[in-house]
């Protein structure tokens, strides 16, 4: 376990680092032994002259414990703090602060397998921390993205000393349904992440030829020849990274592999420790579903206090107001709305649970409702969509009421299903997938990017071949719209799309995208079709993610696509639109329609896919709505 400590650097004052004070003592690169003998590099910051033991703040990261996180900033302080600078600030407030490189990353030993070592390594690290004379037995964890995953992974094993967490945009509830795969499809942010990080770890640390070899590969070109295979990928120069990527891609059945610690917190809710936790994410982040599922799965126990914060942002960008081509207004920042800034919030959170400080408990749930802006174009050239914060006693919002809208043969969305024998068919050609234009994305650069955009093809987006043409003009996109709304409609909650479908292929996908359609105006003479949320479903999993089965000849079946939840005001005069298709690339991998094992087919075939839209087989969009009078509109 963690009974061995190897110190590769003596205790030293931070004064040796330019710009940092000398009232903090640091042990750099303390090598903490894990249960299998691997040592993880750990920096320990302590207030100089401390007497007695103190509470500890811990962050475990694959992004360099001595580096500069891109998100440790605020509106008032736009230049991000380095990790050492942040550690000093927290240490001066009376905390021991610990940053640790994850296994196989930067100064730590061991083999990196993404996500799967973080539970045991986190437990062993906490076990070591509480045994140290400078620790009073109380530990809080924090971190964004992967650093959020490390928190939930450790907590699942109920480690000693863990009292509170600030889980920011991550912490897998079930990586098969959000984060690695979604609706059975593979999230290709995992491919872009592996490509970029393969230049930093594993073989790249010992072989100087690896980084330039990976960097010389054209990621754009490699996306055109998916799926990748062993030795046939841009990360083949670093086998450690190619191996784990292909394993995730090709493990297409929800089996014991997906129930491992680190990627399946939902399997541990019943035994999860009594840890005070703030869960935070945002509507255009890749971890909406994970965040909400963790909150819902753990709520209800008064000994486990929870908070939930959902902004309009992309991944971790909580001090901005523009995401994609959309301006969400001055209230969109965390800063000055939920608290002074995110760091101030975390300090209060740790003071409350690690020091017993008095605290204003405030609202349990903070939600940003998008769409209260005046429309048109801002001076900077973005859609003025706007928005404002509301609070709630819970999630889903208890006051929300269901609203079902039925798909109709005339491409309408209405309150009642159509009569007759309505069905709409289209050809889905995997060689010509529907291009991704924004959405709930992260880590996709330079291939794709997240946020809100007009759903019109543009050369800036990968795969767009007809700039200026709306996606709804494609023959393989079915766009169902309401009439112009007679009143403001505030959608806030889970989103589900139930489809009755069939296909002549042994396997295929169906996608769904919720769109807020602005009417024409001077700034946007063709209107503006703003993507709100989207999802996908792979039909081989229609009988369960653990039971993939080919589609039977002539089989008609019902599927449920679960786009991420959202909160958006569809204003009077706007239309609610639902786009149905069979691909959204490069956000998700493209189904070749052959029924072959996941991520391994070298063939493709065109599928004839059909959506039924009648009373006997009523395909529908299921929303949750609130009274729009809750909002003050701009």
Automatic annotation (TrEMBL):
Segments forming domain Xaa-Pro dipeptidyl-peptidase C-terminal: 347-622
Keyword Nucleotide-binding: no
InterPro entries linked: AB_hydrolase_fold (IPR029058), CocE/Ser_esterase (IPR005674), Galactose-bd-like_sf (IPR008979), Xaa-Pro-like_dom (IPR000383), Xaa-Pro_dipept_C (IPR013736), Xaa-Pro_dipeptidyl-ppase/CocE (IPR050585)
Pfam name, any one: Peptidase_S15
GO molecular function: hydrolase activity
UniProt keywords, alphabetically: Hydrolase
Top-level division of the source organism's lineage: Bacteria
NCBIfam families cross-referenced by the UniProt entry: CocE_NonD (TIGR00976)
Name recorded for this polypeptide: CocE/NonD family hydrolase
Lineage: Bacteria, Pseudomonadati, Pseudomonadota, Alphaproteobacteria, Rhodobacterales
